[in-house]
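Q: Sequence in, structure out?
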Amino acid sequence: MVKNTIHLALREPLLQFLLMGILIFSANAWLEARRDNPRKIVIDDTQFEQLIDVFQEGQGRAPTANEMSNMVVKWTQNEIMYREGLQLQLDQGDDMIRNRLVLKMHNILFNKATPMEPSESDLKLFFETNRVRYDKPAHYDFEQIFIAENIAEAQLQELLKKLTAGDLPDEYRASYMNYRHRPLSNMTAMFGTQGSTLLSTSRLGEWQTVKSHRGVHFARVTYAYPSQPADFENVKSHVARDWRKYQNDLQLARQTVEIAGRYHISLELSDENKKHLAQAETLQERFRKSIENSAERLDTAAVDAR
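A: Exactly. Output:
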């Protein structure tokens, strides 16, 4: 009797409609509960290590702690732009990847920026503050020989003695490379900061043992070209372009800071990766201060110049 009653009730259109509505509502609630919070940005181990891998592939070395921190900040900025672009539905009707959305959001903010023209004093101040951009850096002629991925210390010292005496074994001659008029950054890309510092401060022609991501090398500087300070008048047009770009970037960064206030940014890394970022727990505040401090330094310097 009860079964028949239930069976008949389930055949009623109104009850079927109500049951369907309950199922749809429940499914929607379940999906909403699983949906990520669009205002929460998480940098986890996978993302962090991917940033490091990209840097190593491009630079041929591991990033420093400061470079790691800068990469995280830059990735976060791009993620904010990406999500803001999604909120504005900039992806509708266009099969774009993440970077395309970031670029569109950048363009929207860039169009809000006020064009600025520098005075002579603005340009001179910018030139002196950023002189390293315009001075011609020291350059070097250097040689290097790849020895092995791993080698015993005694064998390495024996090879170094032979090389110093001008007697390089034939099996290493194919690994010999000669570089002319290269900046210090070129050596740093090959051998890291420690290796390039050792080579640039050693006596000319003196072989040194250095390491790279490949393994052990012998290298030496054969000639050093001194740095040459830039003349303001000769690079004035270049300085003006850089000044305008800096001002545009600064305005864009300030707008990004305002948007970033609507997001919660957190790092969810292992203890091993956390040690690379000394103040990882204050990333959001550091992200804000890095831009505000940059603007404050330039504004203060401009006031002092007047």
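The domain at 136-225 is CATH 3.10.50.40 (Chitinase A; domain 3).
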